[in-house]
Each structure stands twice: as structure tokens, then as C-alpha cells.
Design a protein that fits this description.
The complex is a heterodimer of chains A (458) and B (882).
Chain A lengths: L4 H9 L3 E4 L11 E9 L7 E8 L5 E9 L3 H18 L2 H12 L8 E3 L12 H18 L7 H22 L4 H12 L1 E10 L2 E7 L3 E7 L5 E5 L9 H9 L6 H4 E2 L2 E2 L9 E2 L7 H10 L2 H5 L1 H4 L16 E6 L4 E7 L1 H6 L2 H13 L16 H20 L3 H11 L8 H8 L3 H7 L3 E8 L1 H10 L1
Antiparallel strand pairs in A: 1-2, 2-15, 3-4, 3-5, 4-6, 6-7, 6-12, 7-13, 8-9, 8-14, 10-11, 14-15
Helix pairs in contact in A: 2-4, 2-5, 2-6, 3-4, 5-6, 13-15
Chain B lengths: L1 H10 L8 H4 L2 H6 L13 E7 L3 H12 L5 E4 L8 H4 L3 E2 L6 H21 L6 E2 L2 E5 L2 H16 L5 E3 L1 H7 L10 E5 L3 E2 L2 H14 L3 E3 L4 E7 L2 E7 L2 E10 L5 H7 L9 E3 L2 E5 L12 E4 L4 E6 L2 E6 L6 E2 L6 H5 L5 H14 L8 E6 L2 E3 L6 E4 L6 E5 L5 H18 L21 H14 L22 H6 L2 E6 L2 E7 L9 H4 L8 H13 L2 E4 L4 E7 L3 H9 L11 E7 L5 E11 L2 E6 L4 H11 L6 E5 L4 E7 L3 H9 L13 E6 L2 E7 L8 E7 L3 H12 L5 E2 L2 H10 L35 H10 L3 E8 L15 E4 L2 E12 L4 E11 L6 E2 L3 H5 L3 E5 L2 E8 L25
Parallel strand pairs in B: 1-2, 1-12, 2-9, 5-15, 12-22, 25-35
Antiparallel strand pairs in B: 3-8, 4-8, 5-7, 6-7, 10-11, 11-12, 13-18, 13-20, 14-17, 14-19, 15-16, 16-17, 21-22, 23-24, 25-31, 26-29, 26-30, 27-28, 28-29, 31-34, 32-33, 33-34, 36-39, 36-42, 37-38, 37-41, 38-39, 39-40, 41-42
Helix pairs in contact in B: 4-9, 4-13, 6-9, 6-13, 17-22, 20-21
The chains are: A alpha+beta (458), B alpha+beta (882).
Protein name (chain A): [Pyruvate dehydrogenase [acetyl-transferring]]-phosphatase 1, mitochondrial
Pfam family, one (chain A): PP2C
Subcellular location (chain A): Mitochondrion
């Protein structure tokens, strides 16, 4: 039994979304042309989330992928809330005052973000009031703090991440009289999520990363070939600096138990994350909250379970690592993706596949035999591969979909094998997670002309 | 590409020594850039100037000089044999479906074989044979049909099993084959060297050859060629031959009076490899795998393999274009599917090393047949081009026929299918050509089943009723750009898509056409026949009548209102055209002839009518919509619509009258139907067409009227033994040979064209006889259907070929029409065919190798004619070709 190509396509395309930055006066002034995003679930429901929004009170665009674990509650909350925290962190004092006054006097609020959402990307209505109140408390504090300095994007990103994680923690500790909300905030806090967020404003690209999702820049070399530049570091056991950091933060006696089987305390893959209060709160606090919490929480073995060798919390932070990059005309696109993609594909291949996709097939270099010794068989293989590449490009209108098709369907030769693709997509739910992880991808395409013009100004 | 390179060189006026080419070998020549001024200047005049030094130009020069013409100049813009000829794959293949093409290829093969001996120039001729593979049963049927034609021509050819294929060529993967055709005498040549050999022989016979000389345009005065302008001066000439290959179109358009040569270039790719470890034998047969779209020949121990891809790349649409010339590179991605097919056919070649992918543009024509002959507008302007990548196969024969044409006024064979005059200006649109050749090139390999049609370049010429008919389920075919209805699919019956009717067996429209035929026989049908060529010839005095009496064999001095069927014959008495002519008044005539005669007939008459301002000929084809009302109730419909009596007393057969139909006045009504059935053709000024059609359909309802198409018409005319020009009749067939003596008035009191030849035939008898065959043991449901071109056997001996066929719904049998010859059993000499000879034979028709018994008849079944009105002149004519 195989899925037909059209069945495969309908699965692959179910969650695809594209946004094109509108052109004003025929002239696109944004350094971003637009983005394509898509999600392929392995878990049911998927634990990955994605967000994209344009900042309305400041310049710039925000894009992010969020990989949840132990449920999707935390990733969902972060995907709804983080961009507000970032946007607020970036707002100048006057705007914050204006917004606060509007709320205070019940006037219409200045919109802060314009969201670019797929119909499947939902926001929780029930929690919006709660979330809003927390956000308002944050901006009130910012108003009080008024440093007078212009906001630095790096600091804003770090503050926003930390503040949101802090709010998630606090909301869980305080609880809510509404039992639904009470359970929700607890689920958010006890589950976890990594986040990889890009902020693009002109030629300034900031990547704030917490966890093991990844941001990668696609660069077109002078000879037309494609290369990849990492714009984030994975926060996991493979990252020596990260292991070092964790060890520095805890007594030497815990050195051996801190990282076991490449996991934090032998349990958690990412070394930084939102939520996951089991790795942040003291044992007493955890016990108290769980005991006073609703029955569902009490019955859950996972939440009750205290990690072994849990001596000096917190072991986990949501503080992001921020990388700033000045965009150049050769920087053609940015890929943000959860680890589901990076587990299956090398970044170099990602750069090539997306690059060739965006450049269009006609940009595929023609083959010339010239003086080389090529046999008919070798040429045949080469042409077959090129054709496969072209045919799969034509199937997709979305770079992220195209990438997923490769990630799931690639055979050993690096070309999409329909049989394999079909097999992978028809796996039953319980098996899917064994063969692949949730994959979420955002591909942002840059406008080289605008970037070139910015460069010349500077 | 070298040709273009050379063109660039000649653009910057580089000159090379004229006689040098003879001493140099071909491989040096193309790279040699010795720049010297021409030592020999161009002559100021010559009888013939040939433009183009490829295989075509040199072949024409060779044959003209062989026929004794010496005053010939051949001009080549670059070097001899440097264009497409140089890059041609060099395969001489006789396996051609059309008889004239087959003859040309057969002659070429024989010519090339002895050319080296004749000229001393090595031609690389090697008799390797060729194997055409069939992956499907349908393909095998088409190969069997070709094999039948080859065999009766005495060309060895056999259908072989896949096992035998393997014995002939050990590299072939035979697992997907159902059979193959082996032609052992097919050959390989170096096409450039063949061309050089022809040039050498021509040069020895006195032909002057000038390289690096570009023709800028041809001068034409009063419809005659007067000379050519070149970059080295002017040459006055009587005849000009355009053999400029893919540039022939441009050259034709370069002068003030354009000569339309509809061809268009496409890129064509083939692969050259290094030798195999154990080099391939140079005698290994050439392999053609049409289902894989490829051909494979041995080449210097390795292979040469190319093909005809599904997605060709046309080029030079806007004329010669430097950018496109520079872009003529290897395109491996484009060649990919052909490489797939090659490795599938010969998997053992995987390890073979590639030498080069050659990109060599070829020119293609709108109907896949080459273009030869004289321009309809400029006398003395001849063309030989558009070889559809079979240039080397046709080169010899085509050159011979064209030389004969120039010297004798007509070739020794019927070349109408290749005649430039089959095209008009309408096929000369670049957009049309570009689209059409993109269809034609893949068609080279596609399976061609009976009644296939082109899909591109359609809906160009249409009747005003097109939309109305289309909405009623019309299925269309095209003739000379005109859309004509094949049949009407009844409402609710949409099972008919293109693929189902494409078969060698009984097609799915069988019952539909059957019911249309039935309606023609029992009630009344209307067929839109607007595509017919229609001329009006009139004069102030008797000039029209006198001229026409000379040009036509029947007596046209009939009472006004009479319609005459007559041949337009050549001096040998052969049919140049077959027409119906109505005498509209004492001094004006209305002439109807087949659709594809529009250009040819016009040229024939223009060249022969006296240049007299009192005599006017007008092409009124576009002015009239023709509705053919066929059937016993046609008379009722028409009389109700006109309030005029239409019965035989008032409106006899073969009569023409202007009358009103509905509100429309001035409708030219003729009592002919081109089928032998009773009825009328209405020639309606186009603005009345819709009105008259609506009136006819409304009034016809109570008489059971319905639309019908050309397939029904064909079935009706063939069962009544009506010959059609272009299909059954050609310039080599006389009225005497097809039982039409009654249409010739040898004693009409004045001389006419072909009279002498006909007198002679009348006295001495004919050497072929048009005969009708009724297939006896043929199962319509199960057996292969006849088409045309099937060999006819009499008492087991080959006597001729069929020219058309149809299923007769009345006789419930297949009817084939064809010519019977009487070949002397020992010498093969043609003998007189007598009625007894026809009647006293046992006949068989060979359909793709299978023989069916047939009954021969020289006269139609009288029972089929429901009415006879004028005793002496049964309507025995028709024109449409399928």
C-alpha cells in the first residue's frame, strides 16, 4: 500500500503558509521579500509551534519556531506570547506610556503586532485576559524603569525571553480561580519548549535561540553555488560550551550527574528551555504546587516525579543566546527549523535545496562534458537526479514544503524517492514518532536589492 | 554550428580560394580559415543558379549536369557540405511509409553505393542494414505495412522476431520487444563526403561552384526569375533553386516578392561516444527504436545515437539570430529522456565514454514531408528544402526529381505530396510554423494510425458555422488550414476521445458514421463543405470559354445553368485537377475543385490563361459557405424553403441556379452532392450562412435532417467508385485509366491539353486501370482495416496499390480503390491492361502482411444509385481527400 503522489501532496501541503511582504508604490522597502512556512507532525497532536508577525510600533519582523516537549502547552503559550514580550521590550518609553494610558482609560489600544498565521495556528481565547495582564505588568515595570536609553535589540530579546519564562513560572505558582485556566497554566509550566526567533530590521538580523532548534543563513557564493552559515548554537550535550556553562553553574560534586546520556540530569535533551519548572523550581515548591493543584496534575506520574540528583535548582534557563548578523546581498534566505529537520538533513544540503528552489530550476547549471571522462551511465545517473530535483520543485509552491519533502523522502542519493516519502507519511501515529520528529520550518527570503541599497547608504 | 560559424566568417568578407575545396579533405575544410580573395569571379549569367552547397544543392547540380545541362552555378555561403549536411547522422533508410519518399530513399541508396566508384571521392558507404524495433503490437503493424510496400518494390525486407534481433545486434535488450523489421540493404554514409562527391561529379560536368558567396535575394520580374543578387555581384539566370536548408524560408522572403517556403528549424541532438573496449564493427546494423524515440548507429567503433524528443526546441523563429546561434550548445538535461531510452535499449553501454553531444538544427515542415517544386508565384523559382531530418535518405532521389522537373517540366514520378504548391501563404506564419514543428518533430517517432490529425495550428480557417457545428458535437479534422467535420458525436455519447479512435482496427466512430450514412440514404443530411477551392472565371467576350475549352477535357460549351465534371489535364493527359464547372452565364464560369488545389490550380491556370485584361479569374473560396444537402428528402427541404419546384423536371441533375433560400437571395444551388446520392450543394454568400443553415435545419426537422461529416461522405463516394483527386487521381493518371472517358470530349471541335495523349490511349489501351475491390473474407470487427497504399495481388502476383478505402455500410463490406497494372511476368515491363485482364483475375489485398480475398469491379453497383436523372451523365466525380 502506497499513498498516491496527490495524497502525499495533500499531507505535505496541509499546513503550508506563505506570506509576501506587500510592495508599496511598486517598490519593496523591506529587506524581507516574504516567507514560506510549514509543519509536518509526527506526534499527535504536534508539539511544534511557529509564529510570524510584523512589529507595528517599531520596525522589523519577527519569526520563530518552537519545539515543545512533555506536551504542547508550553510551546503553544510561548508561540502566542513571546513576540508581544519582544515587541514591548523594543517599544520606546513614549509608546509604552501611550499604550498604558489607552488601557487605563479604556480607549482603543494601538496594535503592536500584525500576525501572519496559518488557519491551524490558534490562540487560546480563555487565557488571553490572563496573558494580557501579565504583559501589562511587564510594560508597567518597563515604564517605571525608564532608563531613557534607546532599546538595544539584543537586550530586548534576552529580557523578553527571561520575562516570559518568569511569568509562566509565576502564573503557575499563583494559580487561577478558574479551574480550566488553573490547569492550563500548570500544564504550560510543567511542559517545556525551545525557541528560535529571528528579528529582521533592515540589514540587522538578530537570532535569539533557546534550545536545539536552529537558524541557518543561505548564502549564494559568487560561482552561484550555495553555502550555509549557522546563526545559532544548539543548546544540548553536543555543545561543549553549553555543557561547560551548566557545570559552572553548579557545585563540582554534581559534575557527574549533571549530564547523563547526553541529557540534562539524564532526562532533558535541550539545555535551555521555557517552562520545565521541574528543572527550575525547588523540590518544595514543586511538591506544594502539585499537591494543591488539580487532580489531573496529581495523577500525572511525570509531574510528580522529581529528577534524580536534584540538589541546586534551577538547572535550566530560558535565557537565549543572541547572534547579530549584518545582512549582505549574497545572503538570500534564512531557515528557522526545529530539530526534526536538522536530524535528517545537513545544513549544507538544506542551503542547496532551498537555494536552488528559490533561484528556480532554470538556474541549475547546465552540464558540459568538455574534456572530462564521463560514461553514459554516469551521465544518466546525473541527469536522473537533476530531473528528480526539477520535478519535485515543480510540485511545490512553498520552499518549506519542498524542504520537508526532501527531509522525509530523500534516499541515499539525496533525491526524493516517492516510495520512501509515501511510506514515511503513511506510518501509523504510534510508529511515526519512531522514524521522524515533528518538523517545523520557516524560510525567510531576503530582498538583495534592498539590502544592497542599505549597504550603500552606510 | 559550423555553418553558422562560417556564416560569421563570410559576413566579415573572408574569402577562400575557390578550387581548394576539391583537394582538401572534409575534416580539414571546416576548420581551415585560409583567407584569400576569390580567384574566379562570378559569371554574369547562368541558366541555373543553385543556392546552398549541402546535400540538396549538390544533388540537384549533379543531376542537372547528368541530364546535360551545363550552364549551372552553385553558390554556398560558407563551405560545401558545412551546414546540416555536415552534422547529419548519415543514415540512409528506405523504410518510409509514403511511396514517393520510399522511392527517393531507394534511389539515393543506389546512387550513393556507386558514387565512390564514379567520382573517386570516398563516401564512407557501408551497407549495414537497419533494424526498426517494435515495443507494441500497433508499432509492429505499422512496420508490417512498410514491409509490404518495400517487398513489392523489390527491396529486401523482413519482419523478424526479437530473437533474430539479438542475432543481428548483440547489444540490444530485446525483453520489451514484440518484433522488428530488418532492411538489410540500408546503409551508412558520411553525408558531407557524399555531398562532396556529388559536387565533384557536377564540377567535372561543368557546374561552377563558388563557396563563401551569399545570395542576398532573387530578382523576379513579371512572375519570372531574372537573376540573383549576391555579396559578390549579380548573376542573371533563368532558373533559381533554393536549397538553403533551414535558411530557405528567410531567403524566400528576402526579395520584393516573397516566395513562401514553410519550414522552421528545431534543435536536434545526437551523442557520439568513444569506441567500445571491443570496438563495434562498422557493419553492425543501424537500430531505430521509434517507441524509445531514438536511433543508434555504429560510429568509429563507438556509437552515434540521437532521437526526436517530445519537447523539441524550435529556433530561429525570428530569423537568423546571433544570440541563438551562440546558444546552440549541448543540452544534456534536454537529451536526458533519449539517454534513458538508449541505455534501456543497450544497457551494456553504461561504461561507454562520452565524446560529444552534437547540437545540429534540422528544418521541419508543417506536414512532415519535404518541400520541392516550383513557386506558384514565380516561374523558374525552384525549391528543395525542409527534409525533416531525412536529408541524406532523400538527397539523391529528391535531387533527381527536381532536376527532372526543371529540365522536363515535371518529374518522372508523382511528387504532389511534396509539392511546394500544397502550401499557401497561410502556412507561412512564423507562429504557426513554430507551433506546428514542435508537434511535427515528435511525430517523427509517434505511431501514425489511420486518420491521425495535427493538433497544433488549428482553427485557422473556419466556416461561419464552426461554432454552431462544434456545439452540436462536431469532431474536426484539418485540410489546408480549414477545419472540416469528421462526424458528429450524438449528445450524451462522450466516450469518444482521441485515443479510442486511433486504431488500425475498427474505430469507435463506426456506428456514428453508419447512422449518418443511413440518414443520407433514407432522409437528408447536411455537410458543411466550405473548404472547397472556388474560382470564378469570366470575360467580356468569349475569351473565358475559349481558354477553358483548351484547358479542360470535357466540353464546357453547354447551356447556361449546366454543371460539367471535367479533368484539368496536362499534356500527357494526366489530372492536374479534377473540377466541377458551372456555366453561370455565357461568359462566366464557376469552378469548384479540391481544398488543397487552391494554390496549385491557381498557378496552373495563371500560367496558362492568356494575359488578357478582358479575362478575369478570381479566387472566391472565402466568399461562399457550401452546404451539401445529401439524401432523398433534400429536394423537399429545399422546395419548402424556396417556394420553387425542385423536382427532376424543374431542376435536373448537374444543374445550377441562383435562387432564394429562406430570406436569403442569390444562393447558388447546384444539383450535385459529390457522393452520387441525390441532393444539392448550396453556395451561400458567407453573411447568409447562418441564416440559411438555421432555415435548413428547422425546415429539415420533419424530414429527419441531421448533420453529417466527411467520413460519411467518404464512405458514400468510395462505395460508388468515385475517384478523388489527390488521393486516387494524380498528374500521372488519365481519364481513360479511371473509366472517365465520358468526361473527355475528344471530338469537341477544338484542341485541348492532353488530347493527343488521350487519343493514343483510346487507340492503344491503358497501362493501368482504376479498379474497385470488395474485400470478401475480411472481418470488420476483428481484422485490420485497409487504409491506402496496400499492395494488390492478382493471381498471386503484385499488380499495384490501393489509393483509398472505406467501409461501405450498404454493401456491409470494405471497399478499396486502386490501380491494377499488367507487368510482364519475365521482363516486368508494363503491358496494356484490358477489361478481360481485370475481370479474369483472382485478387488479394495485403494489409500489413495479411492477404484478404477481393472481388475486382470496373463499374459501381448500379443498385447503389437510387435515382438517375440524366441518362448519359451520372454524377461521377468528387474531390475531397481525407
Amino acid at each position: 500500500f502506497y499513498l498516491t503522489p496527490s495524497q502525499v501532496n495533500s499531507i505535505l501541503k496541509a499546513n503550508e503558509y506563505s506570506f509576501k511582504v506587500p510592495e508599496f508604490d511598486g517598490k519593496n522597502v523591506s529587506s524581507v521579500l516574504g516567507f514560506d512556512s510549514n509543519q509536518l507532525p509526527a506526534n499527535a497532536p504536534t508539539e511544534d509551534r511557529r509564529s510570524a508577525a510584523t512589529c507595528l510600533q517599531t520596525r522589523g519582523m519577527l519569526l520563530g519556531v518552537f519545539d515543545g516537549h512533555a506536551g504542547c502547552a508550553c510551546a503553544q503559550a510561548v508561540s502566542e506570547r513571546l513576540f508581544y514580550y519582544i515587541a514591548v521590550s523594543l517599544l520606546p518609553h513614549e509608546t509604552l506610556l501611550e499604550i498604558e494610558n489607552a488601557v487605563e482609560s479604556g480607549r482603543a489600544l494601538l496594535p503592536i503586532l500584525q500576525w501572519h498565521k496559518h488557519p491551524n495556528d490558534y490562540f487560546s481565547k480563555e487565557a488571553s485576559k490572563l496573558y494580557f495582564n501579565s504583559l501589562r505588568t511587564y510594560w508597567q515595570e518597563l515604564i517605571d524603569l525608564n532608563s531613557g536609553e534607546t532599546t538595544d535589540v539584543r537586550e530586548a530579546l534576552i529580557n523578553a525571553f527571561k520575562r516570559l519564562d518568569n511569568d509562566i513560572s509565576l502564573e503557575a505558582q499563583v494559580g487561577d480561580p478558574n479551574s480550566f485556566l488553573n490547569y492550563l497554566v500548570l500544564r504550560v509550566a510543567f511542559s517545556g519548549a525551545t525557541a528560535c526567533v529571528a528579528h529582521v530590521d533592515g540589514v540587522d538580523l538578530h537570532i535569539a535561540n533557546t534550545g536545539d532548534s536552529r537558524a541557518m543563513l543561505g548564502v549564494q557564493e559568487e560561482d552561484g553555488s550555495w553555502s550555509a552559515v549557522n546563526l545559532s548554537y544548539d543548546h544540548n550535550a553536543q555543545n561543549e560550551h553549553e555543557v561547560e556553562r551548566v557545570k559552572m553553574e553548579h557545585p563540582k560534586s554534581e559534575e557527574k550527574s549533571l549530564v547523563k546520556q547526553d541529557r540534562l540530569l539524564g532526562l532533558l535533551m535541550p539545555f535551555r528551555a521555557f517552562g520545565d519548572v521541574k528543572f527550575k523550581w525547588s523540590i518544595e515548591l514543586q511538591k506544594r504546587v502539585v499537591e494543591s493543584g488539580p487532580d489531573q496534575l496529581n495523577d500525572n506520574e511525570y509531574t510528580k516525579f522529581i529528577p534524580p540528583n536534584y540538589h541546586t535548582p534551577p538547572y535550566l534557563t530560558a535565557e537565549p543566546e543572541v547572534i547579530h548578523h549584518k545582512l549582505r546581498p549574497q545572503d538570500k534566505f534564512l531557515v528557522l527549523a526545529t530539530d526534526g529537520l536538522w536530524e535528517t538533513m545537513h545544513r549544507q544540503d538544506v542551503a542547496r535545496i532551498v537555494g536552488e528552489y528559490l533561484a528556480g530550476v532554470h538556474h541549475q547549471q547546465p552540464i558540459a562534458v568538455g574534456g572530462y571522462k564521463v560514461t553514459l551511465g554516469q551521465m544518466h545517473g546525473l541527469l536522473t537526479e537533476r530531473r528528480a530535483r526539477i520535478s519535485s520543485v515543480f510540485e511545490d509552491q512553498n520552499a518549506a514544503t519542498h524542504l520537508i519533502r526532501h527531509a522525509v523522502g530523500n534516499n541515499e542519493f539525496g533525491t526524493v524517492d516517492h516510495e520512501r516519502l509515501s511510506k514515511m507519511l503513511s506510518l501509523p501515529e504510534e510508529l511515526a514518532r519512531m522514524y521522524r520528529d515533528d518538523i517545523t520550518i520557516i524560510v525567510v527570503q531576503f530582498n538583495s536589492h534592498v539590502i544592497g541599497a542599505y549597504q550603500n547608504e552606510e | 554550428a559550423a555553418r553558422m560559424f562560417l556564416r560569421l566568417l563570410s559576413d566579415i568578407q573572408w574569402r577562400a580560394a575557390h578550387p581548394k575545396w576539391r583537394r582538401m579533405t572534409s575534416s580539414q575544410r571546416s576548420t581551415s580559415t585560409t583567407a584569400e580573395p576569390h580567384p574566379i569571379s562570378l559569371p554574369a549569367q547562368a541558366q541555373v543558379v543553385i543556392c546552398g552547397g549541402g546535400i540538396m544543392g549538390t544533388s540537384v547540380a549533379y543531376h542537372l549536369s547528368k541530364m546535360g545541362w551545363k550552364d549551372i552555378v552553385l553558390l554556398e555561403q560558407g563551405r560545401l557540405a558545412a551546414g546540416t549536411t555536415r552534422f547529419c547522422a548519415g543514415i540512409v533508410s528506405t523504410a518510409r511509409p509514403m511511396s514517393i519518399e520510399l522511392k527517393m530513399a531507394h534511389y539515393s541508396n543506389k546512387l550513393y553505393q556507386q558514387l565512390e566508384q564514379e567520382t573517386g571521392v570516398q563516401t564512407g558507404y557501408m551497407k549495414t542494414g537497419s533494424i526498426s524495433l517494435a515495443q507494441t503490437q500497433d508499432r509492429l503493424i505499422s512496420l508490417k505495412r512498410i514491409a509490404s510496400s518495400l517487398n513489392v518494390m523489390g527491396i529486401p525486407c523482413e519482419i523478424i522476431s526479437p530473437k533474430k534481433v539479438l542475432q543481428l545486434h548483440p547489444l540490444i535488450n530485446i525483453h520489451d520487444l514484440v518484433g522488428a523489421m530488418y532492411v538489410p540493404e540500408d546503409a551508412l554514409v558520411s553525408s558531407a563526403n557524399v555531398s562532396l562527391a556529388l559536387a565533384t561529379a557536377a564540377s567535372r560536368n561543368g557546374v561552377q561552384i563558388h563557396e563563401r558567396t551569399s545570395v542576398s535575394h532573387v530578382t523576379i520580374q513579371k512572375g519570372r526569375v531574372t537573376g540573383v543578387e549576391t555579396d559578390r555581384g549579380r548573376i542573371q539566370c533563368e532558373f533559381f533553386v533554393n536549397c538553403a536548408g533551414q535558411w530557405a524560408y528567410e531567403l524566400g522572403h528576402s526579395g520584393e516578392e516573397p516566395v513562401h517556403i514553410p519550414l522552421h528549424a528545431c534543435e536536434h541532438f545526437y551523442l557520439l561516444t568513444h569506441p567500445l573496449k571491443e570496438p563495434l564493427s562498422s557493419s553492425l546494423p543501424t537500430v531505430v527504436d521509434p517507441d524509445g524515440r531514438i536511433y543508434i548507429r555504429n560510429w568509429q567503433g563507438g556509437i552515434l545515437s540521437g532521437g526526436f524528443e517530445k519537447n523539441p526546441k524550435p529556433l530561429f523563429t525570428e530569423g537568423r539570430n546571433q544570440l541563438e546561434i551562440q546558444n546552440l550548445q549541448e543540452d544534456w538535461d534536454h537529451f536526458g529522456p533519449l539517454l534513458d531510452a538508449l541505455l534501456r535499449r543497450m544497457p551494456g553501454l553504461e561504461a561507454l565514454q562520452i565524446m560529444q553531444l552534437v547540437n545540429c538544427p534540422e528544418s521541419f515542415t508543417p506536414d512532415m514531408r519535404c518541400i520541392m517544386g516550383e513557386s506558384p508565384t514565380a516561374q523558374g523559382y525552384f525549391v528543395l528544402a525542409g527534409m525533416n531530418s531525412a536529408g541524406i535518405s532523400y538527397g539523391g532521389g529528391a535531387g533527381k526529381y527536381l532536376a527532372e522537373w526543371i529540365v522536363n517540366g515535371y518529374p518522372s514520378e508523382n511528387v504532389w505530396p511534396l509539392d511546394l504548391k500544397r502550401f499557401g501563404t497561410l502556412q507561412s506564419s512564423r507562429t504557426f510554423l513554430r507551433h506546428r514543428v514542435m508537434e511535427v518533430m515528435p511525430l517523427m517517432c509517434d505511431l501514425k494510425v489511420p486518420r491521425w490529425d495535427f493538433q497544433t495550428g488549428r482553427q485557422l480557417r473556419t466556416s461561419p458555422l464552426y461554432d454552431r457545428l462544434d456545439a452540436q458535437g462536431a469532431r474536426w479534422m484539418e485540410k489546408h488550414g480549414f477545419e472540416r467535420v469528421k462526424y458528429f458525436v450524438p449528445p450524451g455519447n462522450d466516450l469518444l476521445d482521441l485515443d479510442h479512435s486511433k486504431t488500425f482496427y475498427k474505430p469507435d466512430w463506426f456506428d456514428i458514421v453508419g447512422s449518418e450514412v443511413k440518414c443520407c440514404k433514407e432522409a437528408v443530411c447536411v455537410i458543411d463543405m466550405s473548404s472547397f477551392t472556388k474560382f470564378e472565371i469570366s470575360s467580356t467576350g468569349d475569351e473565358a470559354l475559349e481558354s477553358l475549352q483548351y484547358l479542360f477535357s470535357n466540353d464546357l460549351d453547354v447551356p447556361v445553368g449546366h454543371v460539367v465534371h471535367t479533368g484539368m489535364l496536362n499534356e500527357k493527359g494526366g489530372y492536374e485537377n479534377d473540377c466541377s464547372i458551372a456555366r453561370l452565364s455565357k461568359r462566366s464560369f464557376f469552378m469548384i475543385s479540391p481544398t488543397d488545389q487552391q494554390v496549385r490550380c491557381w498557378a496552373w491556370l495563371k500560367n496558362r490563361l492568356p494575359n488578357d485584361s478582358n479575362l478575369v479569374m478570381e479566387d472566391v473560396t472565402w466568399k461562399y459557405t457550401a452546404l451539401n444537402l445529401i439524401g432523398p428528402r433534400a429536394v423537399d427541404v429545399l422546395s419548402e424553403l424556396s417556394y420553387a419546384p425542385m423536382t427532376a423536371e424543374h431542376f435536373p441533375s448537374l444543374f445550377c441556379k441562383e435562387m432564394s433560400v429562406g430570406y436569403a437571395n442569390g444562393i447558388r444551388v447546384m444539383s450535385i452532392t459529390h457522393t452520387g446520392e441525390p441532393g444539392f450543394v448550396l453556395y451561400i454568400p458567407i453573411e447568409y450562412a447562418l441564416h440559411v443553415y438555421n432555415e435548413v435545419m428547422n425546415m429539415g426537422q420533419k424530414y429527419g435532417i441531421r448533420n453529417a461529416g466527411y467520413y460519411a461522405l467518404r464512405s458514400l463516394r468510395i462505395e460508388k467508385f468515385f475517384a478523388f483527386w489527390g488521393q486516387d487521381l494524380d498528374a500521372f493518371t488519365t481519364p481513360m485509366e479511371c473509366g472517365r472517358e465520358f468526361q473527355v470530349k475528344l471530338d469537341k471541335g477544338m484542341q485541348f491539353l492532353g488530347q493527343e495523349a488521350l487519343w493514343e490511349q483510346k487507340q492503344n489501351g491503358v497501362y493501368k486501370r482504376f479498379t474497385m475491390f470488395i474485400l470478401e473474407d475480411h472481418d470488420t470487427d476483428m481484422d485490420l482495416w485497409p487504409w491506402w497504399g496496400e499492395p494488390i495481388f492478382r493471381n498471386g502476383r503484385y499488380v499495384g496499390k490501393t489509393t483509398s478505402s472505406a467501409y461501405s455500410y450498404t454493401l456491409e463490406r470494405h471497399v478499396c480503390l486502386g490501380f491494377v497494372h499488367h507487368f510482364d511476368e519475365k521482363t516486368g515491363e508494363k503491358l496494356v491492361v484490358t477489361t478481360d485482364f481485370i475481370n479474369q483475375g483472382e485478387y488479394e489485398i495485403d494489409i500489413a502482411g495479411q492477404r484478404f480475398q477481393a472481388k475486382a469491379k470496373l463499374y459501381p453497383f448500379s443498385s447503389l444509385f437510387t435515382q438517375r436523372r440524366r441518362k448519359d451523365e451520372v454524377e461521377l466525380s468528387g474531390y475531397q481527400r481525407e
